[in-house]
Amino acid sequence: MEAELVALAATGATTLVQQMATDGWAGVRRRMAAFLARRRGAGDEAALEGELDDSRADLVVAQEEDDQDGVAGVTAAWRLRLRRLLSEDPAAAAELRALLDEVAPEADRGTVPEVHNTISGGVQHGAVIQAGVVSGGLTFHAPPGGPFPG
What pTM, to 2 d.p., does this model score? Predict the structure, then answer.
């Protein structure tokens, strides 16, 4: 399989899983189910919407339990499915690209803005965090009464 199609399958799976956690999921689910249904031997749209909803439910549970392996598993399952689809039907690539561009334009997919950090004011004895998006609770356990060892 061409590297370009492998990359497209990976991007498609990642984008699909990211969209599962958005308010626009119902529309994305419907469009992805229609896309899959048009492909050879993919089944009917209602059944495919059910499969997508099952994946979303798995994703929600994994996120609630902070189970990164679970999140990765949902993504890997869709990556494999899209790789198989593109391997069997390379012409589907153009349609998948168009779908991805509509639901998550390339500018919104995986681009990382340039970041510059400055810490000033002397020695820092606590945690310093750099993040673009933090979801879920964060807890830091610092030793009482002083700086971190080392």
Answer: 0.67
